[in-house]
Amino acid sequence: MQVGIMVIYIVALIVMFYFLAMRPQKKQQQAQNELMNSLEVGDTVLTSSGFYGVLIDITDDTVIVEFGSNKNCRIPMQKKAIAQVEKASSNE
């Protein structure tokens, strides 16, 4: 009888761990993947290091970001280094 109750507690703890830790992490990962898939040339991005720039080119794993008003400051970086995206306005 005691073993059955112990098994129920362990199963309950595993279920609680899943809903409190694993599920929110999966939702966050899905949101990050959607953000990466929505990138387009001309979007303004905020990098994980705090710099704002404009996307110039996009490949599978990397992007080229142009920083500041100096058009010669273009840096290739990984897509996962992008923290936020602001879509380019269509009336430019």
Q: Could you name the key traits of this structure?
A:
92 residues; alpha+beta; 2 domains; five-stranded antiparallel beta sheet; 5 strands; rod-shaped
Brief rundown of the structure:
The chain is of the alpha+beta class. The chain has one helix and five strands.
> What is the strand arrangement across the widest sheet?
4-3-2-1-5
CATH class of the largest domain: Mainly Beta
Given the structure, what is the number of helices? 1
Number of strands: 5
CATH architecture of the largest domain: Roll
Number of domains: 2
Structure class: alpha+beta
Estimate the helix proportion, in percent: 25-40%
List the helices and strands and how they pair.
Elements lengths: L1 H36 L6 E4 L4 E7 L3 E6 L6 E5 L3 E5 L6
Antiparallel strand pairs: 1-2, 1-5, 2-3, 3-4
